[in-house]
């Protein structure tokens, strides 16, 4: 079930619901991973994090042999570590970018805790601890980038299309209209100013000496978008939100 | 700092809504459609370094910002049209408002002034000499701030200029509601009247001829003595403006008009009944009643529906009789029909995509084994191939690489100037799992999408030549081709110059907006030219 409820309410809901498998999707920079980490850290002491791409292999995630002295020894990957750790949970960033083999592995990792098991090359059968939880994130709608089998394994699908409103308010306090700019820029899926970039710009402008103008600071952070950002900051109403 | 090829404007920030961005030549000005008034569109030059391009972008930002903030109400075109005020005055007032707004926000005069170079020859001359300071002084000296090019300073008499400076512009800066805009618009238009036009207006609307005060007979001069009937006019105007407000305010306009309509066409039914109004004289109550009776908007809708069905019928006939057309009609007849349909479609701003047929020619050539083989990748399992990596990341094994997926669609229309060799080069690079090319047929009513590469097999050069020869010169089926692309799994790529068209190879804002929305929604990466792709340049989104 997808929902677009407010951030704070969502966070509380996720913390209290204690569901085991979430998929969070939305444009880059809105804070999906941060959201996942915050929710999991409420209930788990050790939150492991992996970021997937096409080149990451199953062995890197699950574990592999590494040479040590005159012999090869088994080395647990982050997934195996999280599954073993009784206080561990897992955040998987950019799930849709994973290779086919890694996605197939995820079918096993995201299965119900009671029946999930993975056979390691060591001969061991790895089973997750009873409360093992996973938060996966991605930029695209799950129906467009994941298989039905994988989607079905998520108990809750959350859509975060806009940055955290609290962050927007904080940005507006530091520099009037900067938060509004960030928020409104997310009307475009391809041309947005992320909170991360805006924070970098505000930090740079706060620390810049006499040798650096505001426009130069903007050019360093936003590149060719600098003039557009500066114009928007000038034109946007400062009392919005 | 390295500049990107084109600037990505933040139109969505100013409009607070979804916007389609279109690049424009720096020689033309920009245009916008605010999301409140229709599918959001921002058209401006996106050159990163040209100050004129930035000035135009800034100006269009200003328009968007004013509408978003409510200082420029929606439904202005219809209200101005009903009040008998020319479109030019609305544009000039909106521009003036933008200038004032930008200046009030502290944006530099130098940036704004660049716009003047296409509007006022005097400023242009000074700027041409690269004397920006003098240009600023000139603008201030004539006492109109930046409004001189709005008021076309060189065409006005000194008295008119003074009147505009002292009476009109301060009002433009303050106007907010629809009534404000119409009232100032009427006043503004009147200040431009020549004595001849004024006489005509007096004759036609005698009840409004101001009586001269003090026996001088100069009561109607711009900036001249006060009119004796001014109070009466003002009261009448208030009543009319109230009615206009009800009719064309946000909610009123939506109720009656539904979707966004071009301003020019919205004006037409009113113009037909406006014979008694000249020079922006306020409409009388009688006239308002007459307009109520004829229901101009209904008439307009009916007329538009008739025209649309006529065009659709013609287009349908073309599609249905395509075979006959191909075999019997000479090229000149084709051209004539195309021209007629094209003119109709362009005039009416309505069009649809053509029907698309997907062609699957025989993919008889396998990629050479050497081509297919891929370099093994370092890994932690597989063949023991990279012992030297033991000292770095320990990935001493090698695993087989799988080919990348993804689909590439090529716009094969005439504007792309794609040669047989170009397509061969792309196929040789064989970058994606599936490659297809599309274009219209020769009647420009439908088109083909030809699959050239799929699942490791490609067409032979002979088949490729044959298939390419069947393609026509138009696009026509960009939309269906994009629909097909979007249904494919994996990454999506498109080589297209952005000139998307529908039936009869003509385009409308809606077709462009559709293509832009699809590319954005499905993260399609696009190259503008096939050469860019072959040379390995980076694609851009949308």
How far apart are the termini of chain B? 24 Å
The total count of helices of chain A amounts to: 12
Regions of chain A with pLDDT < 50 over 5+ consecutive residues?
Answer: 1-5
Structural class of chain A: alpha/beta
Give the mean pLDDT of chain B: 67
Dominant shape of chain A: elongated
Q: TL;DR?
A:
The complex is a heterodimer of chains A (241) and B (542). With 241 residues, chain A is of the alpha/beta class.
Textual characterization of the structure:
The complex is a heterodimer of chains A (241) and B (542). Chain A has 241 residues and is an alpha/beta fold. Helices cover 44% and strands 18% of the residues of chain A. Chain A has helices at residues 7-17, 32-43, 58-62, 78-84, 100-109, 142-145, 148-153, 165-174, 178-185, 195-207, 214-222, 226-235; strands at 2-3, 21-25, 46-51, 63-68, 71-76, 88-93, 118-119, 125-126, 134-138, 156-159. In chain A, the strands form 3 sheets. Chain A has a 6-stranded parallel sheet, sandwiched between helices. A two-stranded antiparallel ribbon of chain A has the order 4-5. The longest helix of chain A is centred in the C-terminal third of the chain and has 13 residues, at 195-207. The two termini of chain A are 30 Å apart. With 542 residues, chain B is of the alpha/beta class. Chain B folds into 4 domains: 7-69, no CATH class; 73-250 and 261-294, no CATH class; 300-350; 357-541, no CATH class. Chain B has helices at residues 11-15, 51-69, 76-83, 87-104, 109-113, 121-128, 132-141, 158-174, 178-191, 195-204, 230-248, 250-257, 263-272, 285-294, 296-320, 322-328, 331-348, 369-372, 420-429, 461-470, 478-487, 509-521, 530-534; strands at residues 20-23, 31-33, 41-44, 355-359, 365-366, 377-379, 383-384, 397-399, 407-411, 434-440, 446-454, 457-458, 492-495, 525-527, 540-541. In chain B, strands 4, 5, 9, 10, 11, 12, 13, 14 and 15 form a 9-stranded mixed sheet that branches. In chain B, strands 1-3-2 form a 3-stranded mixed sheet. In chain B, helix 19 (420-429) links the parallel strand 9 (407-411) and strand 10. At the A-B interface, strand 4, helix 9 and helix 12 of A face helix 1 and helix 2 of B.
């Amino acid at each position: 079930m997808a929902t677009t409820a407010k951030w704070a309410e969502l966070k509380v809901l996720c913390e209290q619901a204690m569901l085991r498998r979430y998929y969070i999707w939305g444009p880059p920079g809105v804070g999906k991973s941060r959201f996942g980490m915050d929710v999991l850290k409420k209930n788990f002491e050790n939150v492991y994090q992996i970021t997937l791409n096409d080149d990451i292999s199953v062995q890197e995630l699950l574990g592999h042999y590494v040479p040590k002295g005159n012999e090869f020894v088994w080395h647990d990957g982050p997934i195996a570590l999280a599954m073993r750790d009784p206080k561990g949970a897992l955040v998987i960033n950019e799930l849709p970018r994973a290779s086919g083999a890694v996605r197939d592995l995820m079918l096993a990792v995201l299965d119900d805790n009671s029946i999930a098991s993975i056979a390691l090359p060591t001969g061991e059968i790895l089973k997750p601890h009873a409360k093992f939880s996973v938060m996966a994130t991605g930029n695209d709608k799950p129906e467009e980038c994941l298989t039905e089998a994988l989607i079905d394994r998520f108990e809750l699908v959350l859509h975060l299309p806009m940055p955290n409103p609290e962050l927007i308010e904080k940005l507006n306090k530091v520099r009037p209209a900067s938060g509004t700019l960030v928020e409104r820029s997310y009307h475009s899926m391809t041309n947005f100013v992320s909170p991360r970039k805006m924070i970098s710009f505000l930090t740079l402008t706060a620390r810049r000496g006499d040798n650096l103008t505001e426009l130069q600071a903007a050019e360093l952070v936003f590149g060719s978008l600098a003039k557009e950002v500066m114009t928007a900051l000038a034109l946007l109403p400062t009392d919005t939100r | 700092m390295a500049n990107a090829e084109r600037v990505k404007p933040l139109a969505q920030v100013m409009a607070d809504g979804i916007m389609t961005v279109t690049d424009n030549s720096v020689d033309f000005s920009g245009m916008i459609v605010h999301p409140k008034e229709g599918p959001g569109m921002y058209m401006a030059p996106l050159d990163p370094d040209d100050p004129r391009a930035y000035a135009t972008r800034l100006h269009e930002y200003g328009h968007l910002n004013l509408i978003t903030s409510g200082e420029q109400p929606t439904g202005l075109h219809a209200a101005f049209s009903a009040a008998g005020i020319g479109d030019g005055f609305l544009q000039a007032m909106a521009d003036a408002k933008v200038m004032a707004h930008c200046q009030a926000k502290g944006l530099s005069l130098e940036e704004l002034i660049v716009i003047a170079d296409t509007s006022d020859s005097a400023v242009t001359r000074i700027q041409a000499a690269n004397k920006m300071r003098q240009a600023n002084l000139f603008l201030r000296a004539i006492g109109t701030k930046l409004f001189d090019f709005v008021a076309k300073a060189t065409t006005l008499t000194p008295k008119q200029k003074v009147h505009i400076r002292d009476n009109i512009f301060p009002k433009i800066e303050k106007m907010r509601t629809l009534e404000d805009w119409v009232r100032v618009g009427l006043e503004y238009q009147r200040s431009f009247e020549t004595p001849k036009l004024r006489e005509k207006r007096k004759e036609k609307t005698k009840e409004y001829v101001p009586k001269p005060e003090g026996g001088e007979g100069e009561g109607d001069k711009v900036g001249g003595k006060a009119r004796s009937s001014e109070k009466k006019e003002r009261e009448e105007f208030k009543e009319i403006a109230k009615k206009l407000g009800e009719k064309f305010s946000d909610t009123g306009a939506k109720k009656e008009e539904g979707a966004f309509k071009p301003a020019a066409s919205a004006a037409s039914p009113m113009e037909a009944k406006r014979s008694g109004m000249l020079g922006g004289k306020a409409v009388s109550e009688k006239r308002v009643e007459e307009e109520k009776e004829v229901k101009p908007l209904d008439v307009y809708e009916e007329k538009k529906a008739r025209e649309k069905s006529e065009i659709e019928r013609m287009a349908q006939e073309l599609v249905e009789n395509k075979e006959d057309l191909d075999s019997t009609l000479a090229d000149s007849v084709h051209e004539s029909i195309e021209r007629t349909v094209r003119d109709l479609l362009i005039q009416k701003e309505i069009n649809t995509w053509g029907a698309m047929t997907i062609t699957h020619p025989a993919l008889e050539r396998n990629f050479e084994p050497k081509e297919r083989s891929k370099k093994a990748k370092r890994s932690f399992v597989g063949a023991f191939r990279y012992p030297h990596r033991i000292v770095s990341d320990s990935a001493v094994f090698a695993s087989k690489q799988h080919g990348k997926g993804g689909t590439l669609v090529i716009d094969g229309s005439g504007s792309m100037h794609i040669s047989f060799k170009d397509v061969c080069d792309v196929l040789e690079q064989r970058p994606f799992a599936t490659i297809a090319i599309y274009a219209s047929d020769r009647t420009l009513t439908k088109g083909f999408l030809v699959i050239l590469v799929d699942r490791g097999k490609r067409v032979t050069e002979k088949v490729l030549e044959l298939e390419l020869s069947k393609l026509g010169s138009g696009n026509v089926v960009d939309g269906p081709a994009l629909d097909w692309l979007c249904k494919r799994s994996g990454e999506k790529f498109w080589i297209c110059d952005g000139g998307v068209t529908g039936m009869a190879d003509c385009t409308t804002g809606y077709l462009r907006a559709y293509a832009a929305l699809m590319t954005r929604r499905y993260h399609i990466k696009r190259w503008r030219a096939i050469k860019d792709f072959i040379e390995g340049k980076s694609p851009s989104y949308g």
